[in-house]
Every structure is written in structure tokens, then in C-alpha cells.
Amino acid sequence: MFCLECGSTDKKMIGDICIDCFLKDYQMIQIPHRIEVQICSHCNSKLEEGKWLDENIPEEEVIYRALEKNITINDLVENEIINLKIEQLKGTIAICYVEILGEVHGQKIDENHDVEVKILKSVCPTCSKIQAGYYEAVIQFRAHNREIKNEEYELADKAIERILIRQSKVDKLAYCPQIATLKEGRDYYIGSLKTARKVGESLKDEFGGIIKESPRLISEDKSTGKGLYRIWISIRIPEFEIDDFIKYENRILQVKSINKNRIIGTDIKTAKNHTIPMKHLEDIKLLKKANEIETTTIISKSPKNLQILDPSDYSAVDLELKDGFQDYNIGDEIKLIKIDNYIYLVN
């Protein structure tokens, strides 16, 4: 049997031609001489089949991935090794070298291709939103019946920053394009609703309080006729703070703990702890602030009573000696709070 192209009779045959003639025009891979890749100039995400993918990767990696995606290896190739190299990068054009080492019908082949990759810069929809200061939700940070303190603002800012840093790994719109400080509190504008809800929960974890959402119609999508909404998320933290005195269900409590789900307070009459679900926040009345606690002197002590000086007029007042105060002695200073003209001793 002889090769129909060269007439050789002593070589391996592939169909009607010898292996040498077969390999003469054979290509192990197909790859275009010019490849165009559209990427976002801000985040380096790549437009592929109508979707923006692979964000925040270096431009060189974008080029290598474009080369890999456009290589088609022929079925006869075995044990292939592909080497890619960017020979030169001129502005938005990369001159690339593609080498493949492989075997076809037992013959080792080394094949080279020169490929030009053109980078087309544009802006993806998400980065376009970010550049325009787009936001989907507003966090309204408020306190019930009081102004928010500077240290509370600082804690809130840090809590929000932590959430935004964590969420930015999975949500490009996890950012805060605007903060507005108002008399009644502070508004944080958040890029995505999903992240805004996590921010709200973080503030609730930090301060306690109640979260409410309210959508607001901002415009209408002309193509669909559907309304476009933004969500206002209100987080209202308690009027009272740790060590303040509150009234709940006819009990006078000194606040000992506040978290996202409950308030724990100590009854100043019985010294027993009571838990109030956060959902009953609006049923709690603030009676006295911790800074209204006064100090006085013990002037007399009996097995059942302590006699103190009323700090308002220095008159002698007899009080029942309750558990927790037995170690006090005449001449010691002791703390008290006056509520509805009645004096309560506090630790």
C-alpha cells in the first residue's frame, strides 16, 4: 500500500496517505488569530454571553483565560501540554504566544500560534450604579425619645464598616455612598437591600431595639409599568441605657443588660432579675437616668433598718435593711435613687 500524495510505501498509513503527509497540514488546536474581550474598566469583570463574570481579577489573568477559552483541541491529540505567554502588551492589545506539545498517532509534535487579544474597556452595570451613587435602602438609626450620643454613633459606624467589608466579598453593592446626620439621628445609604438588612441586624445586635421596614415608590419602569421602590429600614434603639431605671408591668427595674432580643433588669424592691422581650420595648417607661443616682451617708444602723440622710434636705430617713446591704456600716457612703419621692438604695 502506498501514499496517494508522496508515493511512500514504508511509512505508517493514515487512511490513504502516510503519517508524514497527514501531519504536514495537521493542526492540533484551533484558535482565532484575534480575540476580543470586553471587560469592566473598574472591576475587571468580563462580559461573556451577556453576563458579567470573573470580577476583580488582574488584566493579565483575563487575557490568559480568554486564550484558554478559545482553544479547541482536536480529538486525535494525546498527552498534550499547552504553554501560554504574553509576549507584549501595547495599550489594550496583547500579542500572545501559544505553544502545544502533544502526540498524534504516536508522533510527537510541537505546534506554535501567534494570537492577538484585544481588550475592549467598558463599564459593567453594577459599577455604573456605584459610580452614580446608586442605593437600594436607607438605614435610619434613631433612639426612642432621646438624642443619640457621639459614642453610639462611633459604635454604629464601626459595626456598619465591619458588615460592609465582610459583604463586599460577595456583594459588589455592599457600600455606603452617603451618610446624612440629622437632628433625630443618622441615615446610612446602602447600595444593596440584602446588605442593608444585614447592617440593620448588626445594629440591633449592638444596641437592641426594634427594626421596621417601609418601601417607598420612587419611580415607574416605563418598559414594564411596574413601580420601582427603595426600602427604608428604621432601627430605633431604646431610650434607656445600662444602669438606668425603668418601669415595666408595675415593677421598677434597674437595667443590667440589653441585647437584640431582650432587656434584663433587677427589681430595686426585691433584687430579683426580670427579662423583658425586646418586642415589648414600647411598653417600657424610663423613670430615671443612671447619672441621677445620688450618694449619701449612713447615720444609724439596726438589725432591720438603715438610717440615712436625704441628700436633698439632709433630713433623716429610715429604710428597710435588705439583702445586699448588710455589710454597710455607720459612716459609710451609700448610693440611692429617688423615684416618685421614695428613696431606694442601689448597689
Description of the structure:
With 347 residues, the chain is an alpha+beta fold. It has 4 domains: 32-125, no CATH class; 133-234, no CATH class; 244-289; 293-345, OB fold (Dihydrolipoamide Acetyltransferase, E2P). It is 16% helix and 46% strand. The chain has helices spanning 19-24, 59-69, 125-131, 150-167, 193-207, and strands at residues 13-14, 17-18, 29-30, 34-40, 46-48, 51-53, 72-73, 77-90, 93-104, 107-122, 137-143, 178-182, 185-190, 210-220, 227-237, 245-248, 251-258, 262-267, 273-277, 285-288, 294-301, 305-309, 316-320, 333-339, 342-346. Strand 14 (210-220) and strand 15 (227-237) form a beta hairpin. Helix 4 (150-167) crosses helix 5 (193-207). The longest helix is centred in the middle third of the chain and has 18 residues, at 150-167. The chain is elongated and about 130 Å long. It starts with 12 loop residues before the first strand and ends with a strand. Residues 3-237 form the Nmd3 N-terminal domain.
Outline the secondary-structure elements.
Blueprint: E1 13-14, E2 17-18, H1 19-24, E3 29-30, E4 34-40, E5 46-48, E6 51-53, H2 59-69, E7 72-73, E8 77-90, E9 93-104, E10 107-122, H3 125-131, E11 137-143, H4 150-167, E12 178-182, E13 185-190, H5 193-207, E14 210-220, E15 227-237, E16 245-248, E17 251-258, E18 262-267, E19 273-277, E20 285-288, E21 294-301, E22 305-309, E23 316-320, E24 333-339, E25 342-346
Parallel strand pairs: 4-10, 11-15
Antiparallel strand pairs: 1-2, 3-7, 5-6, 8-9, 9-10, 11-13, 12-13, 14-15, 16-17, 16-20, 17-18, 18-19, 21-22, 21-24, 22-23, 24-25
